[in-house]
Structure formats: C-alpha cells, structure tokens
Amino acid sequence: MKQKPMFDRPIELNPEQVKFYDDNGFLIVENVLADDECDKAVEIFDLHRIKIKDEEYKGIMNLDRVDFWSHVYGPNERWVHRYVKQMLIKHPAVVTGLEILQRRDVGCVVNVQSMFLFKKAGSPYAKQAWNPHQDNAYPRAKQGAYITANLVFSDQDPENGCMFIYPGSHMEALLKAEFVKSFQEKPGKNPGHDVTKSLPKKYRNKRIDLPMKKGSVLFLHSHCVHGSYPNNSLNRDRPMLLIPYLTNGYKFIAGKTGQRKELPIR
Ligand SMILES: O=C(O)CCC(=O)C(=O)O
Ligand SMILES: [Fe+2]
Q1: Which of 18, 33, 80, 96 has minimal Cβ neighbours within 10 Å of its Cβ?
Q2: How far is the CA of 148 from the centre of ligand 2 (A)?
Q3: What pLDDT does residue 254 have?
C-alpha cells in the first residue's frame, strides 16, 4: 500500500485496494499526509486545548464549526475552523478516496462530524482504550452508508494505543451492544458501545492489531468492529482525527454530543 506523498493531489486506489476494503471493511493508505501537515494539525488542536484551558487532553469535537465553538472564538479567529474544514475534513485525497470506496459520483459524500483524540502520553486521557464497537451504533445509518476516515498524525502501535480490528465483521448488521458513555467519559472508563459479547466467534480469532504510520489514512466501514489500546508509552503521543462521512441522502441520528449534520465536501 506504499504510495508517494499526496499533498493536494487526489488519491488513486487500485482495484486490489478497493477489493481489500470490500472484503475486510477497512483500508490503510500510507503517505497521504505530509509530515508538516500532520504537525500543523496537532499544533492547531493543541492551541485550541490551551485556549479552552483543558489540562486533561480530552477529545475535541467539531472544531471546524463556527456555531459549535462560538463561545470560544471571535470573528477574527475563523481561520481555526477554516483550517480544520478545508485542509483536513475536505482533504482532496480523503474526499476522492471516499468517493471511490463508496462508488459515488463526485459530491455525493458529505461530512457529518469530526473528533480529535490526543491520547497524549502521561495525560489523564492517555489510557483511553476503546471497547470493540461499530461506529454506526451511534448514527444508525443504512449499513454501508456511513464510513470514517481516520487521519493518523503520529506513528502508532500497541504500546502507544493503536487500534485493533476484526476484519470482515462489516458484513454483520448492527450487533447487540452494551451502551457506555463514549465522549469525555471519566478517565479510567473505557468508551465505545461494547459488542464483545455479541461478536460472532468466527471473527474473534481473526482480530489483528492495526499499527499505522504518521501520514496514513484509515478508511473504516462503520460496521467493522474495532477498538483501541491504552497509551502506555512514556512519551509517544497518539494524535488522530476521526472523521465520519455519509453517502448523501441517507437518514441518521444527529446525537446530542456529536451533533452530526451534513456538510458538503466539494
Ligand atoms: O482512536 C481510538 O482510540 C479509537 C477511537 C474510535 O474508534 C472512535 O472514536 O470511534
Ligand atoms: Fe470507532
């Protein structure tokens, strides 16, 4: 899956990559974001964290939205929202990748939300380990319509809290889940609507870790069961932006916390 850095070029996925996604419910593409793009993104989220005086390194929701953060940012600071929206959520490589995987014409995929996680080494939220879950347990859109792109801003592996995944589990409908608080849960509690008990046996022994390199993008089918490890490292932060998208026209639950709403990405 090695490719040259994309910068602002559209992504190209070959038939093997598309088939891999269809068969497994996820696809990692390396070298999509340049190192400085990753560093700049983390810097902006950290500036925001300082601005809202968060010492715990909580997750940050929907920083692209003016209305969501109007109590924090004035009219002269709109560049913060603009940067997240234009450079990250609408990143050409991500947008074109989604259109290929969703078999949609240009403009038929919309963004609905975004969530940034620091998983900052040594911080209260470093140990945030997600239970095995399906992302669609939250918006409950039609199977296959909801898809997430995770932008990886530093190398991640099991030591610093990478994700794990159950390949092929995207073929299942929504599984029965134990519902838990999944955003700004108390440090020490694990988020993610837990499907450990209902996950069919045939997937359990197929579980794999998902180490990823800085600059990669993970495309993830919203029924593909996944979770993550705590960041147990001394100084290896694991910043990542999780961006859900939807094939335009399908219904979904907006949610009090996520406040999902459709934003065109072209
Ligand atoms: O980044 C992680 O640790 C997993 C997060 C996740 O799966 C989610 O937010 O849905
Ligand atoms: Fe998830």
Answers
A1: 18
A2: 8
A3: 94
pLDDT digits (tens, 9 = 90+) for 94-111: 999 999 999 888 778 888
What type of residue is 136?
Answer: N
Q: Alpha-carbon distance 96 to 37, whole Å?
A: 18
**Where does ligand 1 bind, in terms of residues with CB under 6 Å?**
115, 117, 130, 135, 163, 226, 228, 240, 242
208 CB burial (10 A radius; 0-12, 13-18, 19+):
exposed
Is the pLDDT at 125 greater than 80, yes or no? yes
Query: Ligand nearest 240 Cα, by number?
Result: 1
- The number of the ligand 1 atom at minimal distance from the alpha carbon of 135 is 10
Rounded-to-integer distance, Cα 141 and Cα 218, Å:
20
Q: Cα–Cα distance between 26 and 147 in angstroms, integer?
A: 10
How much is the pLDDT for 187? Answer: 81
Name the CATH code of domain 19-264 (choices 1.10.569.10, 2.60.40.10, 3.30.43.10, 2.60.120.620).
2.60.120.620
pLDDT of residue 28: 98
Nearest Cα residue to atom 3 of ligand 1: 228
- What tokens does 184 get? 């700004």
Q: What is the mean pLDDT of the chain?
A: 93
8 Å CB contact between 79 and 140: no
Locate 237 and state its tokens: 């932060």
Could you report the per-residue pLDDT of 74-85, keeping only the tens digit for each?
999 999 999 999
Give 75 Cα–ligand 2 centroid separation in angstroms: 33
User: Mind listing the pLDDT tens digit for each residue in 238-259?
Assistant: 999 999 999 988 999 999 999 9
